């Protein structure tokens, strides 16, 4: 984290700074501590730390917690019953689609194929006889030798024979497929998670054999409030962190946004996909996802440590240049400034910075310590240091209430 340039550390004010910073970093939804002390403007100069307000754009993201799920899974089941001849894999084995996994004795299926085939042949003969009879009677009706009403029974007999033949052919196809299914192969690339049969077991049709999961990629689902969806940057990568795996961060791609909110939580499910080449991430792990939001506009930014309350209003203490007379007698390396107490309006809160919508201009110097001792016209002393780079700051989750009742957008 890049730190603000600090302009002086003195005496007991350091302890107060630690309290203010702690509130800003850990409890973003807590209001700054009240600063209602009675101050004597005629007292000696108060030593403070300070930082400049700057113009910039907060890095915007929201953090959510979700669960990992496997990319694909498959539950291998027997299409036909029989005795298990061989199981070629163990739990944890990696397999490729098409690999032979289980062999089942197909002798019963081969007998079923023979029986179904014989029935089809018999019904084909019946259909041929029924068709010949129907066509003969059609000819007699055409010649006037047979009443038309006597043709109906022949037509019905042909229809029944044809339907029976079609059913027998379907049974034959099923029997043939069952015979082939005696060799059960992997339907997907994956890892065997459960082996449910052993060689020698006798199983029925539909019996579970093996469970497989594809871990080459992982899905992560998190829930977002409706107020956050419009700002979600679907073109940018999210960052997924799994503490159980040491806290390493992995990039993830946006995949799916649920069309409706969950009726129980009121949140919208957002799904991200991430590559898992080492197969370390498994289904059911808790994941922290940093979701990118669209960048906001450039704003005046102030350190959160500078923000406090006076009379229930959010306040910053601006340190204006002092007169030459007020600078008289100041120690080397220090300068004196005069406090201006300003009520401000705030926008998005970051970890270390906050957007100031009104009340302060870029470049103005702000007190970041000892605010409980400050008031209008109070004289302060501070130490200047070389300017540092801007803070890298992240906002709180949009929608959360900040000091003063504002909401992170």
What order do the helices and strands come in, and which of them pair?
Layout (H helix, E strand, L loop, with lengths): L12 H14 L19 E2 L2 E3 L1 E3 L4 E17 L4 E6 L6 E2 L4 E5 L2 H37 L8 H29 L2 E3 L4 E6 L6 E2 L4 E17 L1 H4 L8 E4 L7 E9 L10 E8 L10 E7 L6 E5 L4 E3 L2 E9 L2 H4 L6 E10 L1 E5 L3 E6 L6 E3 L11 E5 L26
Parallel strand pairs: 1-23
Antiparallel strand pairs: 2-22, 3-16, 4-11, 4-15, 5-7, 5-10, 6-9, 7-8, 9-11, 11-14, 12-13, 12-15, 13-14, 16-21, 17-18, 18-19, 19-23, 20-21
How would you describe the overall organization of this protein?
The chain has 409 residues and is α+β, with helices and mostly antiparallel strands. It contains five helices and 23 strands. The protein has three domains: 13-59 and 297-405, conserved putative lor/sdh protein from methanococcus maripaludis s2 fold, CATH 2.40.420.20; 63-72 and 215-292, Elongation Factor Tu (Ef-tu), domain 3 (Beta Barrel); 107-181, Helix Hairpins (Orthogonal Bundle), CATH 1.10.287. It is 22% helix and 34% strand. The strands form five sheets. The chain has a six-stranded antiparallel β-barrel. The radius of gyration is 39 Å and the shape is elongated. The two termini are 23 Å apart.
